[in-house]
Specification:
This protein has 10 helices and 9 strands. With 290 residues, it is α/β, with parallel strands linked by helices. The strands form 3 sheets. Strands 6-5-9-8 form a 4-stranded mixed sheet. α1 links the parallel β1 and β2 (37-40). α6 crosses α7. The chain is globular. The mean pLDDT is 95.
Length: 290
């Protein structure tokens, strides 16, 4: 099965860790197997956590792991001047305006603390749906009304059709944040459609996001996104059996490199984390495993 374009889409909110690299390597392996080109798309609209050094770390990590990028920025300067999501704000604004006109969204001014108080699960259950707040209300986010959302069909790699409903953790998903910036579900969808991505590799923790984005694509009339194929891979767990995070410095590629680890050492560590019985010290070994 052949594809045109897949992508690596990190967020510059911390230094990349072994979990990020694991996902990147699966993407590289599938790209080589299916003939897809690889796009580097850096999701940088979380401006509170954005740091130039985190963007530089993305380039350094890809170079160290010998992951070749076919499309996208080649360095920090090129990213900031040409490829940042800030340069695509007009695309996001058009999508938000379309949602406003179709009346499929509602305003919500709930804080995270209030949402947790309303339901101990921490999931937002549509409390503002009947409040009919103005979409122009200050400090109000925009959420999708998913009450009428129907079964969503997605294609899991290589060609397995799955039907699912939007799960509770993605119900009433955000499309615009309180600060007025477009939210992740919208920007990721618009970017994937803009660049023509047809193969998306992501962790199982983003399965709910996949369903939300497919629902959003249907609301926006972006039929091409429904033809995208997804691979949701297992997550690498840390010592506490929780998924790795960017706050765990010891698993960052930068930390490992400062410790003197070479490329084959990183592959070796990765092999142990994913439970491989045979030694793994190269991408070729990784390819055999995947």
């Amino acid at each position: 099965m052949n594809f045109s374009l897949t992508r690596i889409a990190p967020t510059p909110s911390g230094f990349l860790h072994l979990g990020n690299v694991y996902s990147f390597l699966i993407t590289k392996a599938l790209a080589e197997k299916t003939g897809a080109k690889i796009l580097l798309r850096i999701d940088d609209l979380d401006r509170e956590r954005y740091r130039p050094e985190y963007v530089q770390d993305i380039f350094d990590t890809l170079d160290f792991m010998e992951i070749k990028i076919d499309q996208g920025p080649k360095n920090l300067r090129e990213f900031e001047t040409e490829w940042s999501q800030l340069h695509r704000m007009d695309h996001y604004a058009v999508a938000l305006n379309t949602l406003r006109e179709t009346k499929t969204i509602f305003a919500c001014d709930c804080s995270r603390k209030k949402i947790l108080q309303l339901d101990s699960s921490g999931y937002y259950l549509g409390q503002c749906l009947d409040r009919r707040l103005s979409l122009d209300k200050s400090e109000a986010a925009w959420r999708m009304n998913t009450m009428e959302s129907e079964f969503i069909t997605l294609t899991e790699y290589p060609d397995r059709k799955v039907n699912a409903l939007i799960p509770q953790d993605a119900a009433f998903y955000l499309v615009r944040k309180k600060d007025g910036l477009p939210a992740y579900q919208l920007t990721s969808l618009i970017d994937d459609c803009h660049f023509g991505t047809d193969l998306i590799v992501r962790g199982k923790d983003l399965y709910s996001s996949t369903l939300a984005q497919l629902d959003l694509a249907e609301k926006l009339g972006l039929a091409s996104f429904s033809k995208t194929t997804f691979l949701h891979h297992s997550l690498i767990k840390g010592q506490n059996q929780e998924k790795l995070s960017k706050s765990e410095g010891a698993t960052s590629i930068q930390f490992l490199r400062k410790e003197g680890k070479k490329l084959k050492d990183v592959f070796g560590i990765l092999g142990k984390l994913i439970g491989r019985q045979e030694p793994m010290d190269s991408f070729e070994d990784f390819q055999k495993w995947t």
